[in-house]
Amino acid sequence: MGLVFKALLFWFPLFLFLFLHDSPTKAEDFNALNNNANSSSSSSRSLASNCNWFRGKWVYDPSYPLYDPSKCPFIEGEFDCQKYGRPDNMYLKYRWQPFSCSLPRFNGLYFLEKWRGKKIMFVGDSLSLNQFQSLTCMIQAWVPNSKISYIKRDGLTSVTFQDYGVNILLYRTPYLVDLVNEKVGRVLKLDSIRSGDAWKGFDMLIFNTWHWWTHTGRSQPFDYIEDGGKTLKDMNRMIAFYKGLTTWARWVNRNVDPSKTKVFFQGISPTHYEGKDWNEPTKSCSGETQPFFGNRYPAGTPMAWVVLKKVLSRIKKPVYLLDVTALSQYRKDAHPSAYGGTRSGRDCSHWCLPGLPDTWNHLLYAALFS
Hints:
single chain; 7-stranded mixed β-sheet; 13 strands; globular
């Protein structure tokens, strides 16, 4: 009973803020917020028409993975689990199969031809890096002899497939909103996105943020939060996340021309540090070699997913949600754990490559070309 009471105390300010400090959502949006992540949402339907690509199961496929990591120059050590000694390889062999349809086969050459001369930018944290490296490897596997430019400079990474004029970039920003150094210290500004000027003029934007909002103590990269002109030492992180996302939504509304730019949001990527989330409380991702195969993930829908859906329900410009949360929750086996070469300790947050982010990009491909 004590744990339940503590949980209510923690979440009550968020619910009060979401439902009293904003105008009501439409009934369909409210229902979508209260359904499990496995249930159909307006964003899912807009991507998949009569098929919800995000409801399905993981199936063994001996033809996987989609590329050889030793032949892809873009994978960094923290994701290259095979290179750094992971002894099993079954996690490489699972393919996502929607219940009521099939995903179109990924074709990197077709991708390049259709997006010839275009610019694509991933904007976000290290999970965006995960997806960025996955997509560039998936495409490169189809054109291994293509001329490629690979540049890393000051938080910006660029891969250009020169024969096709396709430029894929990564802009690193953990919160989307601004994090600046001021006299008082490092300030996270919930109302400001000055860095957004760097995102303009692209043909596709794929945004992501969440994991850094939960960091506290020494791993927290800011000293203060600025909200509405007030400087605070801290605040409810879920409310801060909501406010930061709302600022990002305003930026999209003001700066994106849907006739020129497609906008995606990566979705909430789950972690697997606590085995109680899948009813094995003594475990973590370490040593896990198979997905969770139950019908419903025991931990349920993350509150961050609810907040994200709330913001997306109010955005005026079309933003397509890659609703990867539930399908990723099943993949307790797909993290680097102790096999992320450049990281110390256990990593149950990022994902091995090849691996789960390839499915995120397969869903992105389906959204673009189906």
